[in-house]
Every structure is written in C-alpha cells, then in structure tokens.
Design goal:
Number of domains: 3
Strand content: 15-25%
CATH superfamily of the largest domain: FAD/NAD(P)-binding domain
Number of helices: 18
CATH topology of the largest domain: FAD/NAD(P)-binding domain
CATH architecture of the largest domain: 3-Layer(bba) Sandwich
Length: about 675
C-alpha cells in the first residue's frame, strides 16, 4: 500500500493506494481478505498482505459482530452421517420459493462445505460428535438437517477468528472510516469503481481517499432505515452510494421480519420459543393492565402453545402461515397489540402460557405432536420455561445476562423487527457486480430469493468471499498496486464536489434545510409503516412520492449538519436514496400484480379477508390481503438509478436462471480449469 496527500477545496486529503480494497470488516469482508491472501500466497506473490486493505466504520461493529439468536444458525450442505445430501438438493431448497437464480444457489451449495471447514480450521467452535461428525438440525424452510451452530454468537466467532487470521497474515485493517462516496472512473462499458472517499468517524472532518484495482463491497444491509429493527445500531449500509456509482440491484422487495427483543436487539427464535414461554402485553407504561392477548386469536391452549413453540424454527414472519391459526398469527397478534393498540408485548420465561376459562391449562403432554415429541427427545420437560431453557440452551440465558437482562427474574420486551434484506446488488457466480473489478459479498449482495433457510446468509457470505477472492487472484492478478497519480487525477473532481458539499452542510447550510437526524427519522417511520411486513396497495404510491420528494429536497437544499458530523449528512443522503429504491421496487411489484409472499403481506381492500380476530380494534374492519401471484416467482425485478425515470429508477424483470445440469467428464473439467475457462 502506498500513501500520498493532495489538496482539494482547501482540505488536505490523504490518498491510500492498494491492490484490493475491502469495505466492511464483518465475516464476509474478513473472509474475502483471508482467502485472497491465501490465493496470492499460493501463487508465490511476495508480500501478499501488502496488496490487501480492509476498511470499516468501526472495528467490532456491524451485523456479524452484534447479531444473533438463541443458537445462531450456519446453513450448509448436510454433514449428519445418516442424512444424505447433494449440492443440487441444496440449490433446490434455496430456489424453492422463487426469485433466486439457480446457478448462484448451486454455487452456494457446492462451496458451502469448503467454506464451512475453512471456518472450522480457523477456530470457529462448531460442535461435533465423538467420531467427528458435525451433527445438524432443521431450521426454517429447511427439509434436511443442514443447520449447525456455535451458539448465540456464531457470526461473532466467525468475524473474530477471520480477523485474527487476517492480522496474523499482516493484512491492514483500518477502522473509523465512514464512507461518504464511491469514486468512479470511465464511461459506458469501461465504467469502474476505483475507490472510496471516507471521513473519519467521530466528526473531526478528516477526509481520506482509498484507491485500488479491485473493490470488494461488504458493508452489510440497510437496517437503520427502519424504526423497528433488530439490526445493530448504526447499520446503515452504503446502498445509496452504490446506486450513484452505477451498480444494479435486484429483489429489493424481499426482506425478512420477525420477533426480536428491542431493549437489547436480538432475535428470539429457536429455543427462546421452543421452551413455550408465556407472551403477554401491558399498557404503554410497561406495568399496568397485563393481558393474555394471544387468547383472542387461538381457540385452544394446545394450538396456542404449539404455535409459540413453532415460532422457534418458523421464526420469520410468513404470509402463508396466518390462516388456520398457524404460527405467524402470533406475529400478527404482536403487531396488532403494539402498533394498533399502542401497548407493549413481553416474553415471560417464569410462567407457562395462560389461557381463558374456556381453555384447558397448559400441560406438556397436551402439546400437539410436533412440539411434544421434540421436547421429549431433548429432555426439556421441566415445569417452567426458564428451566427448560436452562436445560436446552444455558448460553441463551447468559447472553441476556451479559446485557444486564436477567431472564430468571424479569420479562423480555419484544416486537416485530426488520432482520435481513434478501435482495441487494446483482452479482454473477463469482460475486462480481455489474461493474468489472467490483465485487459484492455478504448481505450487500442480493443472492437470496423470496424465502431462505435460516443461516443461509452466513453461508452465502463465506461462499461469496471465496469466489470473489479466487476470481481476483486468478483473472485480475491481485498482485499489483495501481498508479496513484492516474487514479487521483480521474477522481479528483468527485472528491472536490463531495468535500465541498459536506463542508457546506456543516458550515453554511441552506436556511430551512433538514437536519440529518430529521431526514433519517422520517425515512425510518415511513419504511416501517409502508415497507416492512405490512404493505398497502392503497398507501404505497403516496409513500414512494414522499420518499422521492425527500430525495429531491436533499438534492436541491442539501442538509443542515451544523450540529453533527459530516458523515451523518452523507448517511442521510444515502439512506434517502436507498429507501426510495425499496419503496419504488415495492410499488412496481404491486402494480405488476404482486401479492403477499415471503415475509410480507400486501393489504388490498379487494383481496381475501384475513382471520376476523385481526379486525381493526377501533373500526372493526377485517383486513384483506392480496394472495401471491406465483407467476412472478419466475422473474427477478432489477433496478438501476435514473433520475429521469418515474420514481428515479429504471426497472426491468429478468427470467430466473435455472439450476445448471452439467455432466462433464473429469478430464474435460480438468482441461477447462488448467486453461482458466472456468472463469468465463
């Protein structure tokens, strides 16, 4: 890595130049750094570590370090000794609900064990039996026993182990870098992202440019654009900047929502639900007027308690699991209680579910077979939920204790939260984006379809990390550092414009301009109201127009960052554009006949009535949902920024690519590999 200094608009900007720049220090970004180092070292590249640089907003931050659940799942091809599996079966699972390319799904299956055993070798403590088999279990949308876990902090362990490997190799890792722009060079087919402009986190206003031959974007999902979210605080993503740079995105309609604790942001899936805790609500003060609200939605204790249990591995809110008193009716009941009634909902591990006088009392033997047999097999037949949880998963209790929340003494407040974006930026089977030399890994990449098995995102991130690293080293070389003078000259105007715009927002804002905090709060409220698990045919157009008006206002007036740091202004700009992209995608999907699918419902007054128990508490009106248009599973919606288009984005639908069916003799495959034809 080389370093120089330039003067731009009265500011000194330090310029760093490296071979491959990785933006994001989570499990996917660190995995890519480690794999690239290994590939370059295998090629005989001297000082390979000097050709790689990782930058991040905060070391130890991001979703990989700060997210999890009861036993956070890593999803891979099956390794249980008595459950056969193939990569093709794996791909069929990933594509089962549509809008997922078959070649990407097959690649994730084929590379899953390669990635998994690399993590094992790096020290992630995945458990195995006496013979060395990594026994699996079923997770949501999983027909096999492909899931494994290293406990509530699986992704944290992954990030830490991979970072330790990177540091041992001497790879540079720089924290405190807030990205404020992606820097591009060239036009048309020669357009490339050649670097990023950052400002030092914390508000001192120090700008730095990082330039490279290859860029890997691993900056995570845009979780902060929701008001109710389980993403770590500050998890904003850089989607808006990626759109500005020219990247195409797809499947932005598809996200995942589910029940999570809100004081400490954590998914309450798995054993938290399988021990069948009591769920109750209170008035807004958190104490008065306690109610057993679930009894309004279920006819019997057996069905109510079993649905609580099923939320363990049917955790994501699912539009197809509401009717007939299925498990996602629990989510709808929580939403009705918190949003429509303004109450608060709690999980109580000190008491079993409580029914009405017409219901039987809770009894383990009266659970439906699926729940009863599971708890019998695991020996979790203790009297109280907290005892069952301690028996099955003591680390799940310890995790909250670390946050000063004692499940043995107090209830846990929960809500339906945004948890993961299944869509993202378009990649090929080497995780290269629509711009050459730019790769997208982790949640930033949109490789998932409508539904995904729990834990498959971790596998996708590690698979993408391997594939990007291999392509960079094998096709682009990865062993050179570009001439900083040529790249600096190409991006200097962009650096100047961004520096001057952000300094103006802090030092001389337009009178009446919005503050970044006000803009972000408006975005969050709008996205939770219109772009989360409930979406309205009648309301989506207005929401999109409001988002477009905000983007236009920011573009013409700028922002008033006089009370905050420069990064906040760039964050608000990017989040506004990201929100507009998501709302425009939802609007277009609905206009094209799209209905309720995956983890969201499309409310439509002309649709099918939902259960009467979900009637509006004030009006008594029963909501109606538009059923899924299954024909749309065969296409994927793609967006590109175009401010001249309606809603600022060009949209097209591309056919889903099928799962490849190759039957190639070994010698043919060997020749193709030696001649590098496998890289296309």
């Amino acid at each position: 890595m080389s370093q120089s200094r330039i003067q731009v608009g009265g500011s000194a900007v330090t310029v760093h130049t490296t071979g491959t720049l990785i933006v994001g220090a989570g499990a996917a970004g660190m995995g890519c750094a480690v794999h690239l180092y290994d590939f370059l070292t295998q090629k005989g590249v001297v000082d390979a570590h000097k050709r790689i640089l990782v930058i991040a907003r905060a070391r130890g931050g991001g979703a990989s370090r700060l997210s999890g659940s009861d036993k956070q799942t890593y999803y891979k091809m099956g390794t249980s000794p008595r459950v056969p599996d193939t990569a093709c079966d794996f791909a069929r699972t990933l594509t089962a609900f549509g809008c997922a390319h078959g070649d990407l799904a097959l690649t994730e299956g084929i590379c899953s064990l390669r990635a998994f055993y690399h993590l094992v070798a790096d020290g992630v403590p995945f458990p195995h039996d006496p013979e060395g088999a990594f026994i699996g279990y079923k997770t949501d949308h999983d027909p096999y026993e492909r899931a494994t876990s290293a406990g509530p902090k699986t992704s944290k362990f992954m990030s830490e182990c991979l970072e330790a490997r990177a540091r041992a190799a001497g790879i540079g890792i720089m924290g405190g870098k807030d990205v404020v722009r992606l820097l591009v060079a060239g036009d048309g087919d020669r357009r490339r992202i050649v670097g990023v402009l950052t400002v030092q986190s914390g508000g001192d206003g120090r700008f730095e440019a990082f330039l490279a031959d290859n860029i890997v974007l691993a900056a995570g999902g845009p979780g902060a654009m929701y008001a109710t979210t389980v993403y770590p605080r500050g998890q904003t993503g850089i989607h808006g900047m990626a759109f500005e740079a020219g990247l195409a995105a797809h499947n932005l309609t598809e996200s995942q929502y589910g029940l999570a604790s809100i004081q400490y942001r954590w998914n309450v899936s798995g054993t938290y639900m399988q021990v069948v805790p009591r769920l109750f609500s209170t008035a807004a003060d958190g104490e008065s007027d306690p109610r057993e609200f679930l009894t309004e939605y279920f006819d019997t204790m057996e069905r109510m308690a079993t649905c609580i249990f099923l939320k363990g591995y049917q955790w994501p809110f699912d539009a197809q699991r509401i009717s007939g008193q299925q498990s996602s009716l629990v989510d709808m009941a929580v939403h009705r209680e918190t949003v429509q009634r303004g109450r608060r909902v709690w999980m109580d591990f000190l008491r079993n579910p409580i029914g009405t006088k017409a219901m039987s009392d809770f009894a383990m033997g009266n659970l439906e077979a699926e729940a009863r047999v599971y708890l019998q097999r695991t020996g979790a037949l203790q009297a109280l939920p907290i005892e069952r949880l301690a028996h099955m998963n003591q680390p799940a209790i310890d995790l909250y204790m670390e946050q000063k929340i004692d499940l043995t003494r107090e209830p846990l407040e929960i809500a339906i939260c945004a948890q993961h974006q299944n869509g993202g930026f378009v990649v090929n089977t080497w995780w290269e984006s629509t711009l050459a030399h730019t790769f997208v890994v982790g949640e930033f990449a949109g490789t998932h379809g409508v539904k995904r098995p729990g834990g498959s995102a971790l596998n996708a991130g590690q698979t993408g990390a391997i594939r990007a690293a291999e392509y960079i080293s094998s096709v682009y070389g990865g062993d050179t550092v570009p001439d900083p003078r040529a790249l600096t000259a190409a991006v200097r105007p962009q650096i100047r414009e961004t520096v001057e715009r952000l300094r103006r927002a802090r030092e001389n804002p337009t009178p009446g301009a919005m503050t970044p905090d006000a803009a972000i709060e408006a975005i969050r409220q709008r996205m939770t109201r219109h772009g989360a698990h409930l979406r309205s045919v009648q309301g989506i157009g207005d929401a999109r127009r409001e988002a477009e008006a905000l983007c236009e206002r920011i573009r013409t007036e700028g922002l008033d960052a006089s009370a905050g740091d420069l990064a906040a202004a760039a964050e608000a700009e990017g989040m506004a554009l990201t929100s507009l992209a998501c709302l425009r995608a939802i609007e277009d999907y609905i206009e094209n006949g799209g209905g309720s699918r995956g983890s969201y419902i499309v409310l439509d007054s002309r649709g099918n009535p939902m259960p009467e128990s979900l009637a509006d508490p004030e009006t008594g009106e029963v909501p109606c949902l538009r059923p899924e248009n299954e024909a749309l599973r065969e296409t994927i919606q793609t967006l590109r920024l175009n401010r001249e288009a309606e809603g600022w984005f060009d949209i097209e639908y591309v056919p889903v690519r099928p799962i490849p069916e190759r039957d190639v003799p070994f010698e043919t495959a060997w020749t193709a590999y030696r001649e590098k034809k496998v890289f296309g």
